[in-house]
Amino acid sequence: MEWDNHRPGSPHRPRNRHDFRVAVICALTLEGGMVELVLDKNWTAEGIIFGKAQGDQNTYTAGAIGRYNVIIAYMPGTGGNRAAAAASAVRSSFPKIEIALVVGICGIVPVHLDTRDEIILGDTVVSTGVVQYDYGKRYPRKRFQVDTKSVPLPQIYFGCYGSANTVLQSGLDRDELAKEHHLIAFEMEGAGVWDIFPTIIVKSACDYADSHKHKNWQGYAAATAATVMKALLETLELPDHETSEDNPVLVPSPQLTLEGRDLVGRSDKKPIRMIPFTRDKDFTGRKEIVQKLLDGIENQVPTYQLRAGLVGMGGVGKSQIAIEFAYRLREVKPRHSIFWIHASTGARFVQEYQELAILVNISIPEQSTILDTVFRWLSDEDNGPWCLILDNVDDDTVFIQKRDDGKVLRDYLPTASHGSVIVTSRYKPAARNLVENNLIHEIEPMSTEESLALLGTRLSFDHSNGAAASELVETLGYLPLAIVHAGSYIQMRQPSITLSRYLRLLRKEHNQVRLLDASGLVDTRRDSSSNRTVTTTWHISFEFIKKAYPQAAELFSLLSMFDNQDISQELIRREDSREKSNRSDSEQSTDDDFDLEFEDNVAVLVNYSLLSVKSDGTSYKIHRIVQLSMVQWLKDHEQLSGYQSVSLRILAGLFPSGVYTTWAACQRLLPHARKILTYEFDEWLSEEKLMLMSKVGVYLDEAGAFYEAEKVLKTASGLAKARLGADHLTTLRITTNYAVVLHNMSRGTEAEGLMRATAAKYLDLQIENNESLRTQYLLGCVLLRQGKVEEATTLVQQCFQRSIEVLGSEHHTTVDLMVCLGCIAEERGEYEEAESFYRRAISHELAASGPLHVRIFGDRTAIGRVLMLQEKLEDAEMLLKDLLAADILDENHYQALAYQSVLAVVFMKQRRFEEAQVLLQKLLTEQRKTGIDVTGHRKTTSWLCNALEAQDKLLSLAEDAKKNDEDPDLYRMLGYLGDCLFMQGRHLDAEPYLRGKVAIHENKQDSARNDADIIPTLQMLGCAYYQQRNLSEAVSMFQKSLAIQENMEGDVHCGMNIFDNISNLGRCLFEQGNCTEAEPHLRKAVAIHDSQPDDSRRDGDILSVLMMLEHAVSHIGQYSEMEKICSRALEIQKSLDHGNSRAMNIARIQHDLDSSLFAQCRYAEAEKVLSTALQWKEGVLNAGHDPDLVNIQTTAFYLYKTLVKLHKELEALDLRKRYKRIRFEMTRVKVQMALRNR
Q1: How many other CB atoms are there within 10 angstroms of residue 685's CB atom?
Q2: Which keywords does the record carry (predicted)?
């Protein structure tokens, strides 16, 4: 028979898969091809097919070498995990394999650590051990005996391999690992096979495991490895025994040694880890939740299986927590097997179970399935404790939907107590299908501290840009995915992109998607199927919701149009109610059913973490990055404009009129209105947009937010004229409201012009109604404020009579006219008549609106003012205190400030300075906080005007205080009034108050003085004199203040407090032309600044000091000092961002630096600096800056002189020609600037 007709010493042709005892495993086709070339017999080439087990993804070639049948396994890919899976599949298909050889190419260490021999490309390394260096494992040397005499040695080395899942491409890392673990070669598959079979690694060098990799040596290396492998097999002695399927024999562990070295290794049975992601060495935060999961396993009840869920929005870090937990579990529970299962779909879950089966080497019976087999293996306590991590369980149907076998996937999750299950999900009901509700951990965005720590792992920052870092993580909503992406983006783009610049770009809405979706930032610790950009990560959830819950998707699309905070139900239910009203009677459900439908839709969004319910239960919020993602999705699918239009119609109808009784609702809806008014709408929606803008503008004006109201109504007025025409009633109404705001901002001339034009339009159109009469009344108010009392009186009186006839005496416009007549009487000094008008107005308003209306509040303030002007101080005080007690308005509303200012003046007139001081201090604090320009904002700051009425009296009292005993209350009052005026830039008005306080202080006895109190006053008075260019008096004040500071102990003697004083003194002396005296003061200011902590320094202030100091030292001939100071000033100025002034300052400092070098006769250095400066200034000139400020002519002149000094006449001549072009460019820029100014 042919079966027995074979060479002596060669194996019989195998009958089935049980006849193979040796496996050769190759990761690359090239490697396997070389092994095939050295086969003595190639059974596969002869057409003999042996098949393989179910689920085996390897490719095989069968053959013979020497006395053994050999099966060559081609892996489906490279890496240790795939090698382990491939080896497990080999064991399943060829159960009698006794030894595996991993053959192919590797990277080597250039010099053998023991012999110091040079190892070159093509040399072969035979393993004596393996270190899995990416996990810190080391596999032992073991077994097999070989006769070394018959092995050819084409430069063969014996030693330990390093094995990892990734290619080593760093010479530095190679040398460190080789030294630490005593390695001479590096590869990727050996450690994976080592777990499954007794193993020899035979690989030849194709590179040096560094960054210089190429494929030139791969073929030769694979060939030498195959040759050495054949030589080893020809000397291999395996125990003789007969095997068959019916008579299995336990195979003793083979032994193979070569030159006394153990070559084959096999670890003892150990836990199996299927974790597809490397550990994040920079993992930060989330310690509490990781510890809770570990504690759950540590304290697990023997008969109870731990199941826990991690639920949260996409990008919040669920999978990252699970990865860190897996590695922490491996450390604290080394006997636990860990299996990471991606469970986004049923098919993916089955595939992961199949890989698990291969990895743990489970044989699948013919009548069984992968799911059943893995379930039984996991249920068997003999296989040790395990933890399943089910990642991305986002579809709530995957584990509860019936399969063809009648079961659901949830049935294939064992409940054995030696196991545990961790679930990550975006959708809470999906997690709840597998985990009890009380063991679901909802993962929220990080805290500020955690977010900053996470950003710090990707990007270095310190306290100098700590504020920018804090703002960045807040802008990103403390979302880990977004923070990591931003940090990586900045790190990748440095130095052109800094943290501050990235933040500035991110503030602009049109940049946000581009920045957060930047490509090239792949996260290796996210599954490839979900490794999306920041905004698109939520598209998975939304697309699923759109398919499964279309009404919830519609609701969320609409919600995304509003501001992401405090989205009240009234916004959404309004649109839902419209849909309900459009249904037929048969389709309409009851209100309860409708409410339930709405709640169901909200619940879907909440469970997917797209929406969160606020504590009141009736309003919602959306994470800002989720909202950005949703808007981008709608834009990509051309649905954005439709939802924006719906949101506009909803809010235009819902936003109240803006009058006092609606303020609470206006305040609640204002953020949504601001958001919607940023959208671009089609022309057919103009009226809805104008309606909303008008309501918002009126409310902002009534609430005292004049600047924002002016911006909104100005835009609305222009839009109304363009879309509706100048004569349209809506245009006229909006224009009137716009003029009111201008009037309140004390922009009387503009307001008067608009009011007159609008009133004329009403006359031309022959319209006389509430709007036209209101316009005339408001015009009267504007004229009165402008001092045109007679014209205002005539107009308001006529309007008052027409209003009574047309609208009636009770109408609010008629009542407003009464108040205006009271103001006219008050302006004329007819206080009793004014009081009568105010009281009549109040009686009408009480009947119409009740005692707590804001109109009554304003009128009572006016009565209090006229009572004060009539010296009825007690009556005025009682009335104003009643207003204070009523607590109708916020204490910082402009009308509240008005009545408090009147009360302060009443107190001053009563010499109750202590009480007046309390009010003025509060008002001053509010003024400083809001930064209101009081000189142009009379309505908001009428308290200041009222306070000034007492100026003469206070100054006379100050003079009395000098002669008599000092008055501490008056002393403080003068200080507060001086502060008020000084903070508003009214230095001329502030000076007498500040001077009066200083005079009282100097008149005190030495024992009664508190010099520390007077220092701020002296400094402000010095600044007031400086602003008036009274430099001598300013120097005197700063010197007095400095003398007090230098004689005192404590913080007032040092730091930025004294820096301001010394720098101001130096400035005054410098501007007097006294450079000699100014120079030491300026130097001292610089020294004080430099001694401060970084967070206390003010680069802008020290820059101006340095610029003065450089001129001062130049004046006294210290040019080398001038050079140093200029260099530092230039460095500081380049780091600042001050728009046009930055370029101008750089030009000035550069000029001074050039001058210092020239003055020191350092012409070679001067030439280099001047050439660079001239080139830079030409660029600034081309950008359109003022040629005179750039000072380019002087730089060119100095460069010309420098070239002449260096005897470079030809270059000097070229410069003169170039200078002609520069002069032409200067002329062009000046003409352009003149045209712009014109």
Answers
A1: 17
A2: TPR repeat
Residues 1146-1184 have pLDDT tens digits of: 666 766 776 777 777 777 777 777 777 777 666 666 655
- Per-residue pLDDT band at 932 (split at 50, 70, 90): very low
* Ordered strands of the 619-621 beta sheet: 567-568, 619-621, 612-613
Q: How many CB atoms lie within 10 A of CB 462?
A: 10
The answer to whether 507 and 475 have CB atoms below 8 angstroms apart is yes
Q: Are 387 and 293 in contact (CB under 8 A)?
A: no
Provide DSSP, 633-645: HHHHTT-HHHHHH
Strand partners, 185: 108, 161
**Tokens in use for 622?**
């959306």
Distance between CA atoms of residues 1025 and 987, nearest Å: 8
User: pLDDT (tens digit, 9 = 90+) per residue, 89-118?
Assistant: 898 899 889 899 999 999 999 988 777 788
Q: What are the tokens at 249?
A: 């024999």
Residue 592 and residue 654 in contact, taking contact as beta carbons nearer than 8 Å: no
User: With contact defined as beta carbons under 8 Å apart, do 530 and 392 qualify?
Assistant: yes
> What is residue 301's three-state secondary structure?
coil
The burial class, CB within 10 Å (0-12 / 13-18 / 19+), for 499 is buried
Token duo for residue 12: 């019989």
Query: What is the rounded CA–CA span in Å between residue 302 and residue 298?
Result: 11
Is residue 613 within a helix (H) or strand (E), and if so which, with residue range? strand 612-613
SS (H, E, C) 83-140: HHHHHHHHHHHCCCCCEEEEEEEEEECCECCCCCCECCCCCEEEEEEEEECCCCEEEC
- Distances from the Cα of 672 to the Cα of 471, 509, 668, 669, angstroms: 22, 16, 8, 5
Nearest alpha-carbon partner for 1009 in 1050, 1040, 1053: 1040
Task: Report whether 998 contacts 1017 (CB < 8 A).
Answer: yes
**Does 634 score more than 50 pLDDT?**
yes
> In 3-state terms, what secondary structure has residue 184?
strand
**2-9: long-range contacts at Cβ-Cβ below 8 A with a sequence spacing of 24 or more?**
9/66, 9/67
Query: What single letter denotes the amino acid at residue 62?
Result: A
CB 980 within 8 A of CB 944: yes
H-helix or E-strand containing 388? strand 386-391
Burial 834-856 (b: 16+ CB within 10 A, else e): bbbbbebbbebbeeebeeebbbb
Strand partners, 613: 620
Q: Residue 1214: CB partners within 8 Å, gap ≥ 6?
A: none
Q: Give me the amino acid identity at 407.
A: K
Interatomic CA distance for residues 603 and 620, integer angstroms: 12
Q: For 238-252, what is each residue's pLDDT tens digit? A: 766 544 433 333 333
Rounded to whole angstroms, the Cα distance separating 125 from 204 reads 6
- Strands (DSSP E) contained in 791-924 are none
CB 440 within 8 A of CB 289: no
| Beta-carbon-side half-sphere exposure of residue 701 (alpha carbons within 13 Å) | 26
pLDDT of residue 339: 93
By DSSP bridging, strand 183-187 and strand 99-108 are: antiparallel
Inter-residue contact 1045 to 1053 (CB < 8 Å): yes
**Distance in angstroms (rounded) separating the CA atoms of residues 1208 and 804:** 91
Q: What is the CA radius of gyration of the chain?
A: 43
- For the chain, the straight-line distance linking the first and the last C-alpha, in angstroms and rounded, comes to 112
What lies within 8 Å, CB to CB, of 324 at 6+ separation is 279, 280, 283, 286, 290
Q: What are phi and psi of 821, to 5 degrees?
A: -65, -35
- φ, ψ (nearest 5 deg) of residue 126: -100, 130
**Nearest-angstrom CA–CA distance, 565 and 620:** 7
Q: 563: number of CA atoms within 13 Å, CB side?
A: 15
Amino acid at 56: D
C-alpha span between 805 and 813 (Å, rounded): 12
Q: How far apart are CA 927 and CA 1048, in angstroms?
A: 32
